[in-house]
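#structure-requests
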Amino acid sequence: MSWWQNLFNQNNRHQRVRTTGQMNATHIARKSELPVVVAPVTGQLQQIAGDKDQINSHNGFMMVPNGNTIMSPVSGIVVSSDAQTVTIQSVHHEQVTVKLQTNDTTISHLATYGTGQQLHAGDLIGTTHATNPEVHIYVLFEETIVPRVNYGAVYAGQNVWQNQESTDVSQ
């Protein structure tokens, strides 16, 4: 293949686009001393609604996916893992749990990790099928952490955590 064919090869272009969010999230997480929580999937970031959602904790947020890859929202060490849940011990947020809620586990699932395995924010941890309206991805924090995020449309790998900076408005 010539250089031009390699440049415009559809497979190579798809690979670059797919990993852009992952590279950005990993770069941000490694360079920042502030808490970093990235959107685990492209889609709508929403509040946990309570009774209609089957999650007991209100300390987190829900994603309705529009993309197919699921990323780790934080950097840390895996505490527990199965096909529906990954719990990560994070430096800034204690334990963060990613929970996949779906009716069809054959096309939507999380990877299983061994206890003690290290993950970075933006690492690929699962796959989902965006056309299934029954798929929800939850990012849950411990009771002492209240998420500070802006709700709405986000892309996978986007830092959604809003850091509070002390600014003096009188100046």
